[in-house]
Amino acid sequence: MKKILFALVAIALVAVSCKPTDPENPDGPKDQTKFSLTMTVAGTPTATEASIKCTPNLDTCYYFVAFADASVGELTAADFYEFANENIAMYIAYGYTIDDCAELGEQVLDFTGLTPETTFRAYGGQVDEDGTEFEDIFTCDFTTASMPQSSMTIAIAFDDATNTVTFTPSASDPFGFYVEDKAGYDDFCAQAGITGEGWAENIQAWCDTYAMYGLALDTYTSAQTVDLTQFFAETVPAGTELVAYAAPVQSNIVNGAGSGIVFTPTTDIVVEGGDAARARMRRAQKSVFRMAR
Prior knowledge:
- By secondary structure, the chain is α+β, with helices and mostly antiparallel strands.
- It has helices spanning 77-93, 182-192, 199-212, 228-231, and strands at 37-42, 50-56, 62-69, 103-104, 107-111, 119-126, 138-143, 154-159, 164-169, 175-181, 224-227, 242-250, 253-254, 259-263, 289-291.
- The longest helix has 17 residues, at 77-93.
C-alpha cells in the first residue's frame, strides 16, 4: 500500500472499478465475472508485523485490504464497506485518486504495528469511486508472535528553573515519551476507559495515533532533556498542572512498564518561535479497523 501522511482512521480495504455490463450499453463495464479475492499469509508473522498475499481473479479491478483484531468478533460486509467507502471518499477529498489508495493485480501487503500474541483478521472486498456496497468480503486470519518485554525503568524529573523535563532510562532499550496538560490527559483516560495512572496505555495511544498517519512515535535509547518552550505549541500559564510520562517501545508497541510524574511550573512556559513551534498531534482512540502500510 502507498503511504499517505494524513489521518485516515480506516480498515485496509480494496477498491475495484469492475462493474456489471450490458453489451448494448457502450458506456457500461465490459466484464460480468464476479470479483473474488484470495488472501494467504506470506512468510511467518513476527510480534508486530505480518504480510498477506492478495490474489484477485480479475486484474482489471481495484481492491483494498484491511485488518482488525479478531477478538472484536465477525465484522459484516456492511461494516467493511461503510469503512472502505469513507476512506476512499477521504482520499479523493484530499485531491488523490483511487489509484493512490487501492491495488491492482496480485500484491503482498504489509501489516505493521501489530499487537504481539494476538490473532488478527484481514478483510478484503471490491469497492469503487462511487461508494458502491458490494455483496462479498474475503478474509484471512493470522496470529502474531510474542515480543520480549523490557525490564527497563525510566526516571523523570522536571526543572522549574529551566522549564525542562529529563527522561533517564536505566538501560539502552528504546523508549518513547510525552508531556501535556493533566486536564487533557485525564479527559483522554476517561474517554478511553483507562484506569489507574495509565502511563503505558497513553504512550501506546500515541503510537497508535502516529500509525494512523503512517508514522511511528520517536524513540530514544539514552537520556533526553526536553525544553518545554520548544515542545508546546503555545504558552502554558504558570500554575498549570502538567504530566510527563514514558514507556519502553519496540516497533511502535509498548513492551514494558510506564512511568510518569505530575508537576506544576511556577512561571509561564513561554513558547519560543511562536507559530514556528512544532504543533503537537492530538492522540486518538484506537480504531477497530487499521490500514495496511
